[in-house]
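Hello Y.,

Per our agreement to keep a running log of every chain we model this quarter, I'm adding this entry. I've kept the format consistent with earlier entries: sequence first, then predicted structure.
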Amino acid sequence: MVAQMESDWPTQKYQSLREIVAEFWTVCNGGYLNGTDLTDHEEPEVSSAVGCPDPNLCTVDVVQYQDDHQGAKYGWKAGKASARTLIDAMKEIAKAAKFIAVAGTIGFAFVGQFLSAFFPSAGSLPVNPCTYAEEQDWGKCVWEQVKPFVQLFVGQQLDQAFEDLWTASIHGFQSRLWALNATAYHNSQHFPNGTVKSMSNQTRDAMYASLYGVHEDMTGKIKLFTTGRAINTTAGAYLSQFASLHVSVMTNLLAPVTYRTEGDRHVFQTFSACYARKTYERATEAFKARMSTIIRASDHHITQCCHPFGPPPYTCWNCPANEWYEDNWPNCDWKMGCSTCGDHRTVCGFPNYPEW
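Predicted structure for the entry above:
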């Protein structure tokens, strides 16, 4: 992953990319990440060069999009919320510097947390586009907010209907997670305020057995989100969310000793690594497709550039009269250019005359 990223991106040029590579190397060398700094960081504003058109003219405004589509903002944060939950889960699993079985009540809390993160209930968002959605469609509405943004970025209509994807796959996982969560809750003892007080070993084992069934079902759906150029499909648009949800399920399965065998850990780690690589590949494909629309153009006219000093005859060069860069993205008219002979110093080149 590190080698591929350093090949695809200018990792040494940008601090955020350098930090990501450094974290990869930490993990590759057997180290551990802090995992506590999961807050959003504001990127410094970069002003455009003098004389250049505003680069934001043809750039998707992520901040504005999130303001207009709070559901999308919530959906993208689900993975980060899940990461916080997973870090807490792993701390419990690795307590006392050795693997121990996590109590059922703790495992129940973790399942509930990532269930609410990926499938929020009505009222979770202060201002949102899902205000008029029915209670049972709230999670669906939030998931559906992501597709229009991805479609805007990749510049094409994504195939497959979201309704079919939701009904056949995503909603099925939501229903099963809700069912195992509700079963474990009602088969446990509660405090007066309704929270779980204690959970029997039988209830805990049944909860994790059901969770393992969800994992197996999600394993069978992986290809739907990753096969081929999945960035061009509706399913591909939700790859990162699906991956985060599945990784959450797998990590929580490490809690009971039953699913902590060497074989289980190998499978969980392999799937997690494959998700990371596929998500990276899809994002890179989309970025390259977007940048490929910026081209260098010329009117093919030739102008003669001549040395202005000294007695004739002057030394002259033939230069393209007008060249420019333009963006051929749909509905984008960004263009930057100049008369190439208008600045002899940079275009026609006179290395022996620095005063030019």
